[in-house]
C-alpha cells in the first residue's frame, strides 16, 4: 500500500513539475528581446529538464512489463545524458550572467563542458551493458555497479558550478548569487533523501531552482531594458541640446549682417547675382532650421547641397577662394550639419588668414570598413587643442563630433599645422550606419 501511494505521489509530482517547467520554457522562449542571448542557455536547460522528467515519468508507466525493457533502457539513457548536458548549460548561464558587468575568460565554462561531454560519452559507451543500469526479469529498472560513479560525477559537476558562482561573485548581485547557489545546492540536498524518497524531491528541487533562475533572468532583463531606456533618453536629450546649439552657432549675427550687406550691394550693381545670393541664403537658413527638428541622419547628397549653399554665399563675398568637390564615395548617411561646419571653419579660420585665395577640398572615399569624409585646406592652420578649449571660435566642432559618435558610432579627427593647413576627417563605420546605393551627391 505504501509503495503504491508513493508511486502515485511520484507520478503526480512529476506531472506537476513538467507543467511548471513547460510554462517556464514557453515564457522564456517567447521573450524575444534584444538581450535574448542571455536566456538561450537557460531555455535549453529547461528543455533538457522537461525531456528528463518525461523520460522519468515514462519509466514509472513502463515498469512492471518485461516487454518494455528496451524502452525503459532508452528512457534511462536519456535521463543520464540530459543530466550531463544540464551541467554544461548551467555553466553557460553562469557565464552569461557574469559577463554582463565584467569580462571573464570562458575557459572554466569550457572545462566543465568538456567534463560533462566526457561523462556523456562514458554513459553512451556503457549503455549496452548492465554496468550503469539494467532491467530485471520483472521489467523493473535497477542500478548497476557503476551507477554511483555517474551520480557522484554529476554531483561533483554541481559542486564545481557552486565554486564558479563564487568565482564570478564580483559581477553578481547578492540576489543573483543566492538564486544560482540554490540551483546547484538544492538538488544535492534532495539526493540525500534518495534512500527514503526518490526521484520526486530531486525534480522538485530543480523545478523550484529553475523558477528562481527564471525570475532572476526576467529581473535582469527588466533592469537592462530600463537602463537602455534611460540611456536612450539621455542621448535624445543630448542630441536635442546639440541641435539647438549647432543651429545657433551656424547662424551667427555677423554672418547674417555680412550676407545682407552683400545682398544690398549686389542689388545696386548686379540684381541677378543678388537674387542668386538670396536664393542660396534662404536654402541655407532652411537647412539649419530643419536640423532643429531632426534627430535623424541625412544622405551625403543632402549634406553636400547644404554645403554648396553656404559656399555660394561665401564666394559672393570672397570670389578668390576655391572649393573642390572630390566625391568618390556616395550612398551613405551622416548627421545633418556635419560637413558644413568643417568647411566654414576651413574658410573662416584657414583661408581668411591668407593674403588672398586659398583652397578647400571636400573628399569622400570608401574602405572595407568605413565611409570617409575629408575637409582639407591650405590655410594658416591653428592649434588643435583650441577647438575644445574655445568652442565659440571654432564653430560647432564639439557638437559635430558628439552627434557623429551618437548617431553613427563614427569619429571626427582633426590635424592642423601652422602655416600649412588643416585636415578634418569623418569616419563612419559601415556596420553601424544605413546606406543607400542610389544616393547621388552631384
Features:
single chain, about 450 residues, alpha+beta, five-stranded mixed sheet, two-stranded antiparallel sheet, 13 helices, about 10% strand, rod-shaped, disordered C terminus
Please, could you describe this protein's structure?
- The protein has 442 residues and is α+β, with helices and mostly antiparallel strands.
- Helices cover 62% and strands 11% of the residues.
- It has helices spanning 2-29, 40-62, 69-98, 107-126, 147-167, 174-191, 200-250, 253-269, 271-292, 300-317, 340-349, 386-389, 397-408, and strands at 133-135, 141-143, 297-299, 322-327, 333-335, 359-366, 370-377, 411-417, 421-429.
- Strands 4-6-7-9-8 form a 5-stranded mixed sheet, covered by helices on one side.
- Helix 3 packs parallel to helix 5 (147-167).
- The radius of gyration is 35 Å and the shape is rod-shaped.
- The protein starts with a helix and ends in a 13-residue tail after the last strand.
How are the strands of the largest sheet arranged? 4-6-7-9-8
Helix fraction?
55-70%
One letter per element, helices H and strands E, the order comes to HHHHEEHHHHHEHEEHEEHHEE
Largest sheet: 5 strands, mixed
The counted number of beta strands is: 9
Amino acid at each position: 500500500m505504501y509503495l503504491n501511494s508513493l508511486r502515485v505521489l511520484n507520478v503526480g509530482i512529476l506531472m506537476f513539475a513538467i507543467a511548471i517547467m513547460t510554462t517556464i520554457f514557453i515564457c522564456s522562449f517567447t521573450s524575444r528581446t534584444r538581450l535574448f542571448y542571455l536566456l538561450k542557455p537557460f531555455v535549453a536547460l529547461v528543455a533538457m529538464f522537461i525531456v528528463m522528467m518525461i523520460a522519468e515519468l515514462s519509466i514509472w508507466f513502463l515498469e512492471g512489463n518485461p516487454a518494455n525493457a528496451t524502452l525503459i533502457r532508452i528512457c534511462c539513457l536519456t535521463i543520464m545524458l540530459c543530466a550531463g548536458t544540464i551541467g554544461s548549460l548551467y555553466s553557460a548561464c553562469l557565464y552569461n550572467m557574469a559577463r554582463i558587468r565584467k569580462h571573464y575568460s570562458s575557459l572554466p565554462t569550457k572545462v566543465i563542458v568538456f567534463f560533462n561531454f566526457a561523462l556523456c560519452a562514458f554513459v553512451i559507451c556503457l549503455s549496452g551493458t548492465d554496468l550503469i543500469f539494467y532491467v530485471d526479469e520483472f521489467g523493473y529498472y535497477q542500478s548497476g555497479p557503476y551507477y554511483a560513479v555517474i551520480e557522484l560525477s554529476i554531483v561533483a559537476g554541481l559542486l564545481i558550478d557552486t565554486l564558479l558562482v563564487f568565482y564570478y561573485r564580483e559581477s553578481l548581485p547578492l540576489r543573483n548569487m543566492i538564486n544560482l547557489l540554490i540551483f546547484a545546492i538544492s538538488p544535492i540536498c534532495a539526493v540525500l533523501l534518495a534512500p527514503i524518497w526518490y526521484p520526486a524531491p530531486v525534480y522538485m528541487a530543480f523545478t523550484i531552482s529553475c523558477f528562481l533562475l527564471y525570475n532572476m533572468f526576467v529581473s535582469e532583463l527588466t533592469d537592462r531594458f530600463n537602463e537602455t531606456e534611460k540611456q536612450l533618453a539621455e542621448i535624445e536629450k543630448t542630441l536635442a541640446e546639440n541641435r539647438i546649439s549647432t543651429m545657433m552657432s551656424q547662424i551667427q549675427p555677423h554672418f547674417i549682417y555680412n550676407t545682407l550687406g552683400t545682398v544690398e550691394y549686389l542689388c545696386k550693381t548686379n540684381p541677378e547675382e543678388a537674387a542668386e545670393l538670396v536664393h542660396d541664403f534662404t536654402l541655407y537658413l532652411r537647412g539649419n532650421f530643419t536640423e532643429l527638428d531632426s534627430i535623424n541622419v541625412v544622405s551625403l547628397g543632402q549634406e553636400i547641397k547644404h554645403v554648396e549653399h553656404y559656399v555660394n554665399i561665401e564666394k559672393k563675398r570672397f570670389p578668390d577662394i576655391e572649393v573642390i568637390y572630390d566625391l568618390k564615395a556616395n550612398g551613405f548617411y551622416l548627421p545633418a550639419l556635419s560637413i558644413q561646419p568643417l568647411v566654414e571653419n576651413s574658410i573662416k579660420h584657414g583661408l581668411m588668414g591668407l593674403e588672398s585665395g586659398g583652397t578647400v577640398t571636400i573628399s569622400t572615399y570608401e574602405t572595407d570598413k568605413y565611409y570617409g569624409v575629408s575637409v582639407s585646406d591650405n590655410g594658416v592652420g591653428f592649434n588643435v587643442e583650441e577647438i575644445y578649449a574655445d568652442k565659440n571660435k571654432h564653430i560647432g566642432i564639439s557638437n559635430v563630433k558628439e552627434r557623429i559618435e551618437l548617431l553613427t558610432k563614427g569619429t571626427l579627427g582633426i590635424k592642423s599645422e601652422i602655416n600649412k593647413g588643416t585636415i578634418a576627417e569623418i569616419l563612419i563605420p559601415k556596420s553601424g550606419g544605413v546606406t543607400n546605393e542610389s544616393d547621388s551627391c552631384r
